[in-house]
Amino acid sequence: MYHIYVVDDDLTVQRELKVLLENQGYRTTIAQKFTSIPEEIEDVKPDLILLDISLPSVDGIMLCAQIRMLSEVPIIFVTSQNSSAAELECMLSGGDDFIEKPYRPAVLLAHISAVLRRTTKRSENILSFEDLELDVVAAKLKHYQNVVELSKNELHILRYFFEHKGEVVSREDLMNDLWDNESFVDDNTLSVNIKRIRNKLESIGVYNVIQTKRGMGYILQEKTKLK
User: Fold this and answer.
1) Which of 54-58, 64-68, 179-183, 185-189 has the lowest mean pLDDT?
2) Check: CATH 3.30.9.10 for 126-220?
3) If you write DSSP's letter for every residue of 112-163 in order, what string do you get?
4) What is the second-level CATH architecture of the domain 3-123?
5) Residues where 4-aspartylphosphate occurs (predicted)?
């Protein structure tokens, strides 16, 4: 179920959107405090944001730019400011789409569906764990602005960890996955790759994220420890 976060101070619009979205099967959260939206979005982690421009004590366009510094969550502006200049400013601040008020419910839903399809397809190639992002197409691991390139085996191992985060992964599981992906490794080669991955994680400022469970295997731990 997709989670949509609504940032609009008009109580009537809030109620209309909540009913409309929940009737379509979306989980909906209405923003209550407009002074801490970026922080709330980091906590809530919605799949999409509906954002008005005119808000109490904050400008929606500036707010969009602030959100973009922390998240790539798709943002659709839903606003009564219907000039081409306003739309351009919204897009330049990081918005993904622009809908004028009063909106037609069917049109708004179609735009939401299109943006979610587009971003979901994109996100399938990006796996995340806390502040780490694994780009499985570019074979790169990112921690904030720090990026490191991965070998084929390192990518397969990290992808398996990311897909099983919080679970104990045995060495046999990892080797079977590598063999399934036509990377034929033995026990010693796996150890070498795990060591290289840990070194690359440290090179981008991440320490002790892959923990060894003696006699069991490894686990991508729940809390990244930074040095």
Assistant:
1) 179-183
2) no
3) HHHHHHHHHHHHTTEEEETTEEEETTTTEEEETTEEEE--HHHHHHHHHHHH
4) 3-Layer(aba) Sandwich (3.40)
5) 52
